[in-house]
Amino acid sequence: MPELKNPKHERFAQLLAEGMTQVDAYEEAGYTRNDGNAAKTANRKDVQARVKEITGKGAEQAACTVASLIAEAEEARQAALQASTPQCSAAVSATMAKAKISGLLLEGPQTTNNTQVNITSDIDAARRIGYIMAKGLQLLQMKQIEGKVEEEGK
Fold it and tell me: Are 105 and 96 in contact (CB under 8 A)?
């Protein structure tokens, strides 16, 4: 569907698609603030179709972008772990990128129920994850060395 012929209706539809309330979008589009007229305009079939088109396109583009970025970060993480010498810091960086893209990583102080909670920064989290992965790699290497020593002793 092309843009609406009425520029105010088009702007109104765009603002609704962005999540603005009907009355605020109506006023922002250039009309005099009026709840009833805002609702009537929002219920027009052409405006509803345009809002649906705008939000559908945005969701498709966002999902595709997020999915592709997560896939790229996962490929980088796997390549880092499967290198001849595993690159733990690169794997951690890729994991942190996935968390940021997914919106799972919160930075700085967060407020919940009027109580401030400090969330570990991504740098601290990355350091901790890197440390744990490095220790795990050391243990794995030690087990492999022990296995070779036991085989040679037999």
Answer: yes
